[in-house]
Amino acid sequence: MSWSYSGDPSASNLDAVRFWAQLTDSNDERLSDEEIAFIITQEDSNKGAGAACCEIMATKYASEADIEAGANGELAVKFSQISAQFAARGKAIRDSSATPVGPWAASISIGEKESQEDDTDRVEPAFKRDKFATDGSLSGNVQDWNNDGSR
Fold it and tell me: Where are the domains of the chain?
């Protein structure tokens, strides 16, 4: 297994993913180039692959036990904290790359409405405004309805 990072996230997809996941320390090789290359094939973007790397690391460290000593030996490795940090980083990357979707309403502008009405390939709506005259009778050249409620 190999490990590399050029220090330039724009140099390659691998470097970009390492950058997003902050797996750039050559003294702390957590995921190999081959593992990241596989993750890249599973995601739609380098940011997504970076988030996936963080999620994988969070899962890995969640299964590790926290080590504590104490008294004068003073050894404390908190894998749960590392797991939480990777999970938070993965969520932050996913959140930052999410595309916001807003509501859309058709024909709000007069120009768009008129453009749709002028489109000869558009299906004519079954019901439209001012279909009935003010006296309640049908106005204009509206098609008659069948007894079953269809045209």
Answer: 1-125
Q: What is the pLDDT of residue 56?
A: 93
The answer to whether the CB of 115 falls within 8 A of the CB of 106 is no
What pTM did the predictor assign? 0.57
Question: What pLDDT does residue 19 have?
Answer: 96
Q: Which residues pair with 68 in a beta bridge?
A: 76
pLDDT at 43 over 60: yes
For residue 14 the two structure tokens come to: 């691998």
Cβ pair 145, 151 in contact under 8 A: yes
23 burial level (CB within 10 Å; 0-12, 13-18, 19+): buried
Tell me what pLDDT residue 73 has.
67
Q: Max alpha carbon distance in the chain (Å)?
A: 96
Tell me the backbone φ, ψ of residue 59, rounded to 5 degrees: -65, -45
Output phi, psi for 16, to 5 deg: -65, -45
Number of residues in the chain: 151
Give the integer Cα–Cα distance in Å for 60 and 84.
11
66 close to 77: Cβ distance less than 8 angstroms = yes
